[in-house]
Amino acid sequence: MASPASQPLTHDAIQALLRTKTFGRTLHLFQEVSSTNHEAMKLAQQGAPDGTVVVAEAQTAGKGRLGRRWYSPPGANLYCSVILRNQPTDDLAGWLSVLPLLSAVAVAKAVQLAAGLTPSLKWPNDILAGDRKLGGLLCESSLSGPTTTFVIVGVGLNVNSHRADFPEDIRDLATSVAEETGRPCDRAQLIAAILWELEQYAEALLTRRPDLFLGEYARLCTTLGRRVRVSLSGDRLLEGLADSIAPDGSLRVTCDPSSGGGMVEVRAGDVVHLR
Ligand code: BTN
Known about the structure:
Layout: H1 11-17, E1 27-30, H2 36-45, E2 53-56, E3 78-84, H3 92-115, E4 120-122, E5 126-129, E6 132-144, E7 147-157, H4 168-171, H5 177-181, H6 187-207, H7 214-220, E8 227-232, E9 236-245, E10 251-255, E11 263-266, E12 270-273
Parallel strand pairs: 1-2
Antiparallel strand pairs: 2-3, 3-7, 4-5, 5-6, 6-7, 8-9, 8-12, 9-10, 10-11
Helix pairs in contact: 1-6, 3-6, 3-7
The chain binds biotin.
């Protein structure tokens, strides 16, 4: 019989492993969708409850950050989106800016729990093994007036893909859990672990000040203390030393004189770790 690691995902296999209160209790599993974030957004607009999860075996138009595509071949990896409806009554902005960073901490801890691999993080929410990308998060929210009605946390993880099968443009930059550990990983266990960790953090983030979690993020974030090149909107580039995380989750960079010197707080941008 095939090992659980190479078996197709099933609704029953995932739900049998859940330890959560709400996350994943409503679960939509698809063979193929354009994007699990897109499906989750549609379901949320139709009133799907907090903690509803969309998982797919493949995505035809998986979305990455900054308008990029996310490599989403069938049957090997993890594409998963969670609908979050519970939001704090105060400091909504702080919650929204820290949630993507905290979700990355949750996913890194889940990978450690389910696969015995300890990833690091690249600001804001890339999941790394060494210098290669293992996964990433795309958080999207629906705003109506001054309140956010829901947030979609989308998680993409390369789990059992072989490096040789990655498209050429990412082959030297990406890796998978199986490539790193040398053994296939049971995706149902990984999903259950991610949902458990995400639920723990989402609950805690409702009752504690968002910035209190940033120490935990900083311990996993290997961007800090490194020289970085940051691409900002409008084709602007800056280089400098990644110094710390600001209370709103921004990356503080001490700029090189050639980039104007001084300290800049980067709220959104693409970071490259320099040697
Ligand atoms: C990144 O660029 O690092 C973020 C990648 C996020 C990919 C995941 S896969 C599941 C969910 N659905 C999407 O279309 N994107 C996210």
